[in-house]
Amino acid sequence: MKRWHLTIALAALAAGAGWLSHGIRVESPVLIGFMPTAADARRASSNTKIGTASIDFVLRTDPRIAACFADARAHLGHLPDVVVRAHLRPNGRADSVTISDPATLTGTGLAMCLATTIETMGFFVPDGAPPTWVTYRFPGS
Q1: How far are the Cα atoms of 18, 29, 79, 109, 126 from residue 88, in angstroms, in the given order?
Q2: Apex CA 29: angle with CA 25 and CA 34, to 5°?
Q3: Is 98 helix (H, G, I), strand (E, B) or coil?
């Protein structure tokens, strides 16, 4: 069984159990300054096929992510909800990972740790899915 098969199966179980975060948003690719075309609408509809359940599962269960937050809590104390934005490419790799909220955490050790960790992960992306932006909310402590 391939790794992504297991990820999808476990994510489906988590979804059935109601464990998934409601903080995932998959954005359609938009070119600023251009009106959306019919092709843009088709690409946007294909983005809904990107497995938000698998993204949630991977981000919630990776011990490296937990270590990033544990280190930040040790240095900062209580953490608010942290919103991370990443560009998800068709090969399942993320790049351009940033903390979009709260802005005070941008450029901190937590931001660098999350960016490095998320960029090394692999996510399930269906064949033919365009590159897209994903926003994920980690609950505060």
Answers
A1: 25, 11, 26, 22, 12
A2: 135
A3: strand
Q: How many domains does the chain have?
A: 1
**Could you please report the per-residue DSSP string of 104-138?**
GGTTSHHHHHHHHHHHH------TTPPPEEEEEEE
**SS3 state at 65:** helix
Q: Read off the DSSP letter of residue 91.
A: T
Q: How many CB atoms lie within 10 A of CB 51?
A: 22
CB–CB of 126/8 below 8 Å? no
- Alpha helix locations (H) across the chain? 3-17, 38-47, 52-61, 63-76, 109-120
Range of the domain at 49: 3-17+25-138
Distance of alpha carbon 71 from alpha carbon 66, whole angstroms:
9
pLDDT string in tens for the chain (141-residue length): 455 444 454 454 444 444 444 455 555 444 344 445 555 555 555 554 566 778 888 888 899 999 999 999 998 888 898 999 999 998 889 989 999 888 888 888 999 999 999 999 988 887 777 888 888 999 887
